[in-house]
Model the fold of this input.
Amino acid sequence: MSNIKVGVLGIQGDIEENILSTVEALKKLNLRGTVESVRYSESIAELDGLILPGGESTVIGSLLSIQGKVFQTIEKKITEGMPVLGTCAGLIMLSKRTYDKVVGETKQKLFGMLDVVIERNAFGRQHESFEVDLEIPVLGKEPFRGIFIRSPIVNNVGESVTILTKFNDKIVAVKQNNIIGTSFHPELSADRRLHELFIKDILEFRKY
Amino acid sequence: MTISLVATEEERNGIKFKNLHNEQLVQGTTLVKRGFAHMQKHGVIMDVTTVEQAQIAEDAGAVAVMVLDKLPYDVRKAGGVARTASIKVIEEIMDEITIPLMAKCRIGHISEAKILEVIGVDMIDESEVLTPADEENHIWKWNYTTPFVNGAKNLGEALRRIEEGSSMIRTKGEPGTGNIAEAIRHIKQVNNDIRKLRSFYFDKDEQELIKFSRELKSSYSLIKETAKLARLPVVNFAAGGISTPADAALVMNLGCDGVFVGSGIFKAEDPEQRAKSIVLATTYYDDPTIVMEAQKLVDEKKSLLGLDTKSLELRMQERGPMI
Done:
């Protein structure tokens, strides 16, 4: 089996943190692979899996609309079944519709494959940001430390969407086929199980 | 290259954080505060003074806005005492934009900082652009659940600010001059100090490491952590004099995690174009073709004319407590 090629969208946000998390997850699963920051459609076309990191979704969206080809390539790859993990801003980018808690409807560019409606900054501003232990059954019994930074929440989910976990009755992690989205930042905690789940999706994808 | 996300134990003891709802949910931890700065990486934070400017900044792709009463260039021109911005302006901007909002307080001015925390700004800049309120001490930033960013012109200053609880560092440069020379000097100073540290650490020369920590007037544990990481343990941005896309690309190429642009955008005659082009050049800093495309969007005749940093009446980087 050839090496697994994972990319982290290198436009803006905590790119290096996601690269490091994925490298560690690969190591834990005893797999060989490369993980790098990607910004060009040629390199994205070759990927087995893509992470959309945390950051500011408006910034990532507006830069992607300037680089139209990159946007189309990602869209095409996700439709073809390439596994993708979106954390925080990445979750927003993947969603079908997004609005802001204070400002309302936003005109930002979205991929729109994930059948959910997102409320941005749903927990409030930075001083409301928090850490908490989450129960994520698909990752096992051990709680997962969720780091929520000006996080969005998932408000409405379509039929094909599985809810991975809720916090205070709010949906904060979802999965829809090859797409995983989290409100929190698994790349900021020391726990690599969410990145491992994403890599297992990649292994599944490569079978076909 | 990694960044230390969790502070060392002794620092953790000084942290103020809030437990809410249940035992587990905690706010204002070092991880949550430093984590916020991590989300700003590879982005451009723009100085704004009005709602209109904030809107332009958000549309151009700013990762956050920094609200102040006067742009640094105008602070120099006006003279007098520069203080934190009007609360009304901060609140107006907060209601208009979705990206994070930062605001500046005077060095050592605990009350201005508390006010900004109560309003709910996402990050506080304890800034030498404003007139320092305390010539002896910086703010003890562990007492806040809001993260702080501080300026530094060398590694010693940067580590001392981190020791006081700062979650992010930026170079001081010489604000409001449109001249990048001082920022470059500060970036290289920090980089060179870290290179020296790294070689001591690699050679397991503890004696030199301790000597260096005395020279930098910083704690030994933080020195060791920095040496191990081979970079600052928090996010490190460039600031002070960035005016063009090429300037932004230059500081990114020197290893900065992102950029602050002060007077460079709204004191230029083409703010919309300039803001967009600086964002583009920051993301694609290592691709000369795209940086060229970005540079093409701005007209040099419309750049902030700028000032020679050698003949300044006011050197902002020299202000505030020495230690």
In short: The longest helix of chain B spans residues 181-202. Chain B touches chain A through 49 residues (CB under 8 Å). Residues 25-175+187-304 of chain B form a domain with the TIM Barrel fold (CATH 3.20.20.70).
